[in-house]
């Protein structure tokens, strides 16, 4: 089973993944947690490039770097883990590419879709949680954090990314939107309800 978490920076994805992991392990499941970009030696190198604010990265290069990192992660970790019957939880997946590079940067959606197929090796999530918050909430929560290259893309960019996630939530049946302003505990409980439904299906 493959479950992904999406939302803008600071929406609470890593917090919820930690809690869900703890819950699932306690209930006897074998769980693998990941974050994108990253998770393999090659993908961590690519992550460092993508987030380095000293670098200028063109839009298509950015897209291809995210996909290169993803392809390595899917091949070496996601696919083998799913084949072994583990539950894979990922902090971001190709919906981030649709929201950030597609809606945010404005790259043609056909290119985004095709590249997502290539980068994911065709592996689709079973369920995707979208933690929805306003741009300013994320900024406020992360105000003491050093901003990376992506986070320096501007307010207008983030508004487009949020619009992108809202469109995905409307169009993709695997999306479950949760109000990210709710307490950590309330969100966790909703996540657990939905995951239990999926497990018992
Ligand atoms: P992300 O992984 O989406 O960037 P994090 O889980 O790292 O987000 O959360 C960003 C910050 O917001 C952290 O300081 C975290 O403790 C805090 N946080 C997470 N969820 C909530 C919530 N529901 N309400 C208030 N603060 C939260
Ligand atoms: P990260 O610090 O992991 O995200 P977060 O702040 O949510 O914890 O940084 C990853 C950044 O890369 C984040 O700004 C989203 C962006 N991103 C894309 O633009 N496209 C993608 O395909 C992925 C996976 C991430």
Structure description:
This protein is an alpha/beta fold. It is built from eight helices and five strands, in the order E-H-E-H-H-E-H-H-E-H-H-E-H. It has a five-stranded parallel β-sheet, sandwiched between helices. Helix 3 packs parallel to helix 5, helix 4 packs antiparallel against helix 5 and helix 4 crosses helix 7. The protein is globular. The relative contact order is 0.20. The model has no long low-confidence stretch (mean pLDDT 97). The structure holds adenosine-5'-diphosphate and thymidine-5'-diphosphate. Adenosine-5'-diphosphate (ADP) binds next to helix 1 and helix 8.
TL;DR of this structure?
By secondary structure, this protein is α/β, with parallel strands linked by helices.
How does the SSE layout of this entry go?
Blueprint: E1 2-6, H1 13-26, E2 31-35, H2 41-51, H3 59-83, E3 87-91, H4 94-104, H5 109-120, E4 127-132, H6 135-141, H7 155-171, E5 175-179, H8 184-199
Parallel strand pairs: 1-3, 1-4, 2-3, 4-5
Bound molecules: adenosine-5'-diphosphate and thymidine-5'-diphosphate.
In round numbers, the mean pLDDT is 97
- With strands numbered from the N-terminus, the spatial order across the biggest sheet is 2-3-1-4-5
Bound ligands, named by name, code or SMILES: adenosine-5'-diphosphate, thymidine-5'-diphosphate
N-to-C span: 12 Å
Structural class: alpha/beta
Q: How are helices and strands ordered from N to C? A: EHEHHEHHEHHEH
